[in-house]
Specification:
By secondary structure, the protein is mainly α. Helix content is 66%, strand content 3%. The protein has helices at residues 4-7, 19-22, 25-41, 45-62, 66-71, 77-89, 111-137, 140-150, 161-191, 201-208, 212-232, 253-275, and strands at residues 100-104, 107-110. The chain has a two-stranded antiparallel ribbon. A hairpin with a 2-residue loop joins strand 1 (100-104) and strand 2 (107-110). Helix 4 (45-62) runs parallel beside helix 7 (111-137).
Length: 278
């Protein structure tokens, strides 16, 4: 039986009362943004090793099961492996000498290709981890309020920040609902005798094709219910007006410590990336 909800954990909120969950959403968003930029900047194995230490600290503060977090990487590991192989085989950098390991026809594997492809995959994994931890520790309401507070200055130049943030947050938080709906449709088809775990890749893909129409119909129905609920609450009735908040955000001492740790960690990783040759 296929159980997607056990493997696809992106977008789920875990309210376990951890220090990370209780933090100010503005602090969590700022730290997540800095860590994402850091992962994009890092280009050495030692820099990524330092990022791994940061992940260990985040994991300890979050009190979320490590196995649960690692389970979220499972659904797209096959796709990453495919990209990894393609990038190695078709690596091209004319300005850099290459140490060829294996060669056949137009396919060339070099040490430089292996190193570059490995760094790219590791970078993607770190990016996914940082964004996932932000989703795990932040509710939809807090995420919206935090982004509105951080991007509020953009409203002065006419950018509709509230509408943009609402669309973005709803899209992120729709992932678990989408996964649950797909799993429900798969179980319904399995009860009718369809075996999704048999056959080759193409046969399994053809078995999934009939699920798309009911999936889109269900998605449109949920979108209509959400729009009616927002309209009933007069959301967007007066553009430019600032909505009141049920709970005010407070920047505590722990938020300052975490933000200082984030800035210092980013500086250390940048220095390591510059100074260390590998």
């Amino acid at each position: 039986m296929i159980e997607l909800s056990r493997d696809i954990t992106f977008g789920q909120y875990i309210n376990n009362g951890s220090p990370l969950t209780r933090m100010d959403p503005r602090t969590k968003l700022s730290c997540a943004f800095l860590f994402v930029v850091l992962a994009l900047y890092a280009s050495k194995f030692t820099a990524f090793a330092a990022c791994l230490l940061i992940c260990i600290v985040i994991q300890w503060i979050s009190r979320i099961s490590t196995l649960y977090v690692l389970r979220g990487f499972k659904p797209f590991l096959g796709f990453l492996l495919f990209i990894y192989i393609i990038e190695i085989l078709f690596y091209y950098n004319p300005g850099q000498p290459q140490t060829v390991i294996w060669h056949w026809w137009v396919l060339v594997v070099s040490w430089e290709a292996v190193i570059s492809s490995t760094l790219s995959i590791v970078r993607v994994l770190f990016l996914y981890y940082f964004v996932s931890m932000l989703m795990f520790a932040t509710s939809m309401v807090d995420l919206t309020d935090g982004m509105e507070a951080l991007l509020a200055p953009l409203q002065k130049i006419g950018i509709p920040v509230n509408a943009f943030i609402m669309v973005l947050v709803v899209a992120f938080k729709f992932v678990p609902i989408f996964v649950t709906e797909v799993e429900r449709l798969i179980k319904a088809q399995s009860a009718r005798g369809v075996r999704f775990d048999q056959g080759n890749v193409f046969q399994r893909t053809l078995k999934l094709a009939p699920l798309f129409i009911p999936l889109f119909v269900s998605g449109f129905k949920r979108a209509e219910v959400l729009s009616v609920a927002m309209e009933a609450r007069c959301y967007g009735n007066r553009p430019g007006w600032r909505r009141s908040k049920r709970r005010e955000m407070h920047f505590e001492r722990f938020d300052a410590l975490v933000l200082a740790f984030t800035v210092i960690s980013c500086i250390v990783v940048v220095v390591i990336n510059i100074m260390v040759p590998w």
